[in-house]
Design a protein that fits this description.
Helix content: 40-55%
Largest sheet: 2 strands, antiparallel
Strand order of the largest sheet: 1-2
Oligomer: single chain
Radius of gyration: 23 Å
């Protein structure tokens, strides 16, 4: 079992699976969605780059500017974070831009800017989280039947 897979393929005359050619054939013909921010125009890719997707999950709790810079570079270029920070961008504004951009990469028009802001605010404002204390839970559930486990 010490044979190199490449040597084995050559011996067996197997066709090489050419993903370069396949992905070129499959490439989308549409242009990415443009957006304007602080006087500069950016064009989103037609799908989220793998690097962005992986870093978004890995760095979701990071506040390190270098981590965020790397993540944004795959969508907006290497100087985006610094340029936006120089213009006074807030963390909320960054969040809204990211929500809008990730939604509109693959499906242009999927989310409006106002909808992206609402979605960001819901997520950051705690909507959907369990109330912190008993009084809040009672107030939240007032008028509704309590959930049951289905057991008697």
């Amino acid at each position: 079992m010490s044979e190199n897979p490449r040597d084995l393929a050559a011996e067996q005359q197997l066709d090489v699976a050419d993903f370069d050619a396949f992905f070129t054939e499959q490439a989308e013909q549409r242009a990415g969605v443009p957006l304007k921010l602080y006087g500069r125009e950016y064009v989103l890719p037609t799908s989220l780059p793998l690097l962005f997707t992986l870093q978004m999950e890995r760095l979701k709790d990071s506040a390190d500017p270098d981590d965020i810079r790397k993540m944004l570079a795959s969508l907006f270029g290497p100087d985006a974070l610094d340029a936006w920070a120089e213009h006074g961008m807030t963390d909320r504004q960054l969040g809204v831009v990211l929500v809008w951009s990730t939604a509109n990469c693959r499906t242009p028009g999927a989310v409006s800017m106002a909808e992206a802001a609402r979605l960001y605010d819901e997520r950051e404002g705690g909507t959907g989280k369990a109330p912190a204390n008993r009084a809040e839970r009672r107030t939240k559930n007032k008028g509704r039947k309590p959930a049951t486990s289905g057991k008697r």
